Amino acid sequence: MPVVTTLLPYLDFLLHANLHLRDFFLAHGPWVYGLLFLVIFCETGLVVTPFLPGDSLIFAAGALSVATGGALRLDLLAVVLIAAPLCGDQTNYWVGRLLGAKIPFSPKSRILKSTYLERTQAFYAKWGASTVVVARFVPIVRTFAPFVAGLGRMAYLRYVAFSALGAILWVGLCLGTGALFGNIPLVQKNFSVVVLGIVGVSVLPLLIGAWRSRRK
Fold first, then answer.
1. Any bridge partners for residue 106, and if so which?
2. For residues 191 and 141, what is the distance between their CA atoms, to the nearest angstrom?
3. What φ, ψ does residue 113 adopt, rounded to 5°?
4. What angle do CA 23, 84, 209 make, to 5 degrees?
5. Which range is most confident: 7-11, 15-19, 165-169, 205-209?
6. Sign of torsion over alpha carbons 69, 70, 71, 77
7. Residue closest to 14 by CA, chosen among 199, 186, 170
8. Residue 1 burial (C-beta neighbours within 10 Å; 0-12, 13-18, 19+)
């Protein structure tokens, strides 16, 4: 049961990101921009935090911007939330390039799982350099994609171009969708279901890949 107890706060934050983000904004005002930057940076920049809820948090931020009547500025959110994964990507890339071969990934590790690394490498085998863009929409893989790019010594300028494109598309889609639909009463009442739907669609490529691998 200790694992379940540890996961409960994370699951609560994931499924009720809109309420937690609203409460933080009411208590701390503009510091919410810093919180969002930190969470998204860590999810994309540190291989030890692939579990952070990037998609749902950006969606909730878009919804909150509309709910506050613009007090939480949508344009500023876009800048902060695009800058966060870009900075995270660069950090992760250079960690992979300089230290990747020395990091002890293991099938038994709870965080540094070698299976995460292998799945990301499979993405690169299928999608090539565009993995940096495609993986942005897939939890866990988006955390390891920059690391593997650095480990494989992808040309840095090419990597930055794909990284920037992925960040713009990802944030634009999640933030824009949150602003458009996040405050519809039906969505607000069933936010947990919406989050599960977002997560489900995001991990679908992983599930399909795993199923195909088992068939082969």
1. 113
2. 24
3. -75, 130
4. 100
5. 165-169
6. positive
7. 199
8. exposed
84 burial type by CB count under 10 A (0-12 exposed, 13-18 middle, 19+ buried): buried
Place of tokens 């200790």: 2
**Sequence-separated (6 or more) residues with CB below 8 Å from residue 192:** 15, 16
Question: Residue type at 36?
Answer: L
Q: Which pair of tokens denotes residue 179?
A: 């602003």
The pTM score is 0.81
* Cβ pair 32, 72 in contact under 8 A: yes
- Digit-coded pLDDT (tens) for 91-138: 999 998 888 777 777 776 666 677 777 777 777 877 777 888 888 888
Distance CA 155, CA 170 (A): 22
- Asked if 166 and 136 count as a contact pair (C-beta separation under 8 A), the reply is yes
- 6-15: Cβ within 8 A, 24+ apart: 10/51, 13/53, 14/53, 14/56, 14/195, 14/199, 15/191, 15/192, 15/195, 15/196
First-to-last C-alpha distance (Å) of the chain? 36
CA distance 106 to 104: 6
Tokens representing 98 are 């300089």
Task: Tokens for 36, please give them.
Answer: 């969002």
Residue 106 has φ and ψ, to the nearest 5°, of -150, 145
Q: What is the CA radius of gyration of the chain?
A: 17
Q: How many residues does the chain have?
A: 216
